[in-house]
Every structure is written in C-alpha cells, then in structure tokens.
Design a protein that fits this description.
Blueprint (H helix, E strand, L loop, with lengths): L6 H21 L5 E5 L7 H16 L3 E5 L6 H8 L7 E6 H9 L11 E16 L8 H10 L3 E4 L5 H13 L4 E4 L3 H9 L5 E5 H9 L4 E5 L25 E9 L4 H15 L2 H10 L2 E4 L2 H11 L3 H8 L5
Parallel strand pairs: 1-2, 1-3, 5-6, 5-7
Antiparallel strand pairs: 3-9, 4-7, 4-8, 4-9, 4-10
Length: 322
C-alpha cells in the first residue's frame, strides 16, 4: 500500500493546479471563439448574438464567429455545445427552449443544468398577445369572452414554443378555448395574422412591436409582471384579471460545464459592459428587449426555476414532440 502524501506535498499540488488554471485563463483566448446559435439567421435571437459577437471580438482580440445550427427546437446546438471541450472557445446562445425541451422531447442529449455553466443572461422580454385589428376585442376580458362563445384560432411560433405554452397557461387559467395553430417560427404566424387568416398570436414581444406601433396588429397584454417599456400602454395579464400570471422570455450565454471560472468571469464582465453601451442599449430598446446582465448565478437561478416549471404545462398542452 502506498503511503499518503505529506500535507505539504498535497498543498503544493493544489497550488500547482491553481497556477495551471490561472495561466490557462490568462492565455485565453488564443484562437477564434465559436458562438453557437440554435436558430437560423434572422428572427430576434440571431441579430443579438451577432451584435454581442462583434463587440466581444473587439475586446478579446480574437474573432468571435457566429455559427447557426438550427433544428430540433435548438437541440442540435444545445447538444453540440454540451459535448464541446470546456476551454472557453465554444459558447452557446441559450434561450427559453433550453429549459423547455427536456419536457417536450422524449430524449435530449444534454441536461440544461448539469451540462452547462451560465455566463450571463443578456436580455429578457415578454410574450405578447396580439389580435387582428378587425377582431371585436380591445381587452383581454373581451378576447376571453369571444373565446368562450365561439371558436377562435390562436397561432404560435410552433408546438412547444414558449408562445404556445404561455397561451396554454392562459387557456387553463381563464377557462377559455381556441384552436391552436402552430407555425415554423413567429414570422409566418404574424403574416397570417396580419392577412386576417388567424384571430390571435402569442409570441415574443420584439417580433411584433413594430406591427403594433404601425397599427397592423392590436396588442392586448404582455405576459411579464411589469409592463414592457417598448409598449408601455399595453397592460400585463396580471393587470387584466389574472393575478400572478408571469411568463418571461430570456436569452443568455453559456459554456460547456467545466469551463475555467476565470474565463466565465471575464466573459460575464465583458458582456455586461457591451449590454451597457449606448449603441447596444438603444438597439435593444427599439426591438423591445430589456438588458438583463447580472452575475452568472442570476442565469443559473432562471434555469433552476424554469426547468421544473414546464413539464406539467407541456403535459396539459399535449405538445410532446418526437
């Protein structure tokens, strides 16, 4: 049997490992960084990722290359990053689906809490209930009264999307009914709503803000606990007779589990600085996003709250996907 190492030797080994980790963090990044985006170019996730990537490249002194890996509701990108080397050179743009998908798909190749380390929550925003202007409903109460009297159609960006699940929560709370019409993204759903082929759509606020401002759509309520600065006249669902109703959409940066904490800390500080730049803040506000920021623990808390929340909602919605 080998003898246990003396205490001094153990201390020396620990200090040596710490020095190696510190040297690695100081040398990082030594090549281009991949920023993996789980959606196709366009929409609201991709432009924000490219904006942050451009500023990160300037501050880190290495290219930050945005890679779009769409498919399976984001699972392709999530699994790719979960399996990547935790060396700080592969990062993920995460969003609501990271927390929702384990409840939505029978199998996913990652654990949203165990396989990632949060860096920062970049933005948050509301889900928005919008209707075609010709629908005789100007408030949530009037919309729900219509839903209880006759069939309505309500579109979403897709089965199991946060818009679909927010609508399902509303249906259950209000005792209303409508036909859910899933689309492949918010854009096609909005186009059909503007054309009058749908009665309503539930989707992320930035996707519809300009249409509401232009009068092409009527906004009835937001899903957050406070009104959205981008559309301050639009009440919350909690104000509209559904106390406690809250669904918040988010985006954030994550890295593979095991990434050096010093790298995480630097990425957090750099991204927080970028979010505070007047140019960036103005672009986010114009789209309807609210900068989030905060320490990595804030995004960890968001995931810890969201992951156990969705299985029951997915079950009620019948939105299980293959």
């Amino acid at each position: 049997m080998s003898e246990p190492l003396p205490r001094r030797a153990l201390l020396g080994a620990a200090l040596g490992l710490a020095a190696v980790g510190s040297a690695h963090a100081q040398a990082w990044p030594d090549r281009a960084i991949r920023l993996v985006v789980p959606v196709s170019p366009g929409g609201s996730v991709d432009p924000l990722a490219r904006l942050i990537a451009r500023h990160l490249a300037e501050s880190l002194g290495q290219p930050v290359v945005v890679e779009n890996h769409a498919g399976a509701g984001g699972n392709i990108a999530f699994e790719m990053v979960a399996r990547a080397r935790p060396d700080g050179h592969t990062l993920l743009v995460g969003w609501d689906s990271l927390a929702i998908n384990p409840a939505l798909y029978p199998r996913v190749g990652y654990d949203p809490i165990r396989d990632f380390v949060p860096i920062i929550q970049t933005v948050r925003t509301a889900q928005l209930l919008v209707v075609r202007p010709s629908l005789p409903a100007t408030t949530v109460d009037e919309f729900l009264a219509l839903a209880r009297r006759g069939p309505l159609t309500l579109g979403s960006p897709g089965n199991g999307s946060i818009g679909h699940l927010a609508a399902e929560l509303l249906k259950r709370r209000a005792g209303a009914e409508w036909t859910h019409v899933p689309y492949r993204g918010g854009g096609p759903a909005l186009a059909d709503l503007i054309a009058g082929h749908l009665d309503a759509v539930f989707l992320t606020l930035p996707a519809a803000t300009e249409h509401v401002r232009a009068g092409r759509l009527r906004a009835l309520a937001v899903s957050t606990t406070a009104r959205a600065p981008a559309l301050p006249a639009v009440p919350t669902l909690a104000e509209s007779g559904l106390p406690g109703f809250e669904v918040t959409s988010w985006q954030g940066l994550l890295a593979p589990a095991g990434t050096d904490p010093a790298i995480i800390a630097r990425l957090n500080a750099e991204t927080a600085r970028i979010l505070a730049l007047p140019e960036v803040a103005a672009q986010l506000a114009a789209q309807g996003f609210e900068p989030a920021g905060g320490p990595p623990a804030a995004l960890a808390t968001r995931l810890a709250e969201d992951v156990p929340r969705w299985p029951e909602v997915v079950k009620l919605a019948g939105a299980r996907l293959d």
